[in-house]
Amino acid sequence: MPTTLEFWFEFASTYSYVAAMRIEGLCAAAGVPLRWKPFLLGPLFALQGWNDSHFNLNPRRGAYMWRDMERLTTKFGLPWRRPAVFPRATTRPARVACHVADEPWAGDFIRRIFTANFGDDRDIQSLEVLREILADLGQDADTALATAESPERRSLLRANTEAAAAAGLFGAPNCLVNGELFWGEEALEDAVAWAQRPQ
Amino acid sequence: MPTTLEFWFEFASTYSYVAAMRIEGLCAAAGVPLRWKPFLLGPLFALQGWNDSHFNLNPRRGAYMWRDMERLTTKFGLPWRRPAVFPRATTRPARVACHVADEPWAGDFIRRIFTANFGDDRDIQSLEVLREILADLGQDADTALATAESPERRSLLRANTEAAAAAGLFGAPNCLVNGELFWGEEALEDAVAWAQRPQ
What we know:
2 copies of one chain form a homodimer.
Chain A: E1 5-9, H1 14-30, E2 34-38, H2 41-47, H3 54-57, H4 59-76, H5 91-100, H6 106-118, H7 127-136, H8 141-148, H9 151-166, E3 174-177, E4 180-183, H10 188-196
Parallel strand pairs in A: 1-2
Antiparallel strand pairs in A: 1-3, 3-4
């Protein structure tokens, strides 16, 4: 009986984009249940003494990441446009993703948000973009946005972010399988294989 | 006609260990010529404002790396013992590796040094360990060590380290294929595939 794989991601994270586009298909093919876990990287970066993405703080590391994104999106056939703003504010789409994480269309919503950021260079914090994507998915956008920002639902994102810190996360994306952490886009296959093992 | 793959590594680097144990086999299977490029990470870390391995400076990142090493060495069937000293001083074996990099037994020497550090927890900077490994490989250890430390040969390591900085490297291991940089143990397969493409 496969273990559930928790996919912990941040909408501003480039490697989370590539991983988010692949993880549902990988889990489905392996018979591994998937749980979406949106969180905010900012507080985790602050724990490490950073006030920005380390890709901005460390130009050598950043230059490599942007080139790597060109290669990875080509490798996996994903749309790619380097965003004009990096990292983008993501609290609003992340709150919606927390709110709908258990819905059958959660994966579609998450991939649409990521593609808006990294395929179309759009401001995924804007209500216009969020409404458009929710409507395209056949959802009542105003209700979804209002509920996601309600006091009882907006706390979900803070709870996820605190749980991410408590679990030892330091970046994104991550897969957590029965407490075992797999960090990085290139660890997806190992994480899925881990979830298939007897625990 | 495949392009030469340059493998840039540091003997103190855990992920360089896993990669160094695999790269010659991957290149041979793909018909890709391999060139060994030992360098020192310390000066590259200094360029990024670090006075130690970031795995020591950042405990969250470090804890993940040590667990990842247990998993990766299991995955690839490699010996593993967490070294008592990390990172170890490596100038002496790195100078020997530079000196013998074009010899047919360079890969054997490099894998033996890495295994002494990460499989056997031995001080790879000690003359005793270096002599033992060189002798096991049928080499005249005293001559090899003396030549590697001679003024004209010891400059090879500094030249490699300066070339690494100029090429934009920021960590290890790396594959450089016709100027294209692939960083990290998990990028080996992509780097080998890149070397097989028409350039």
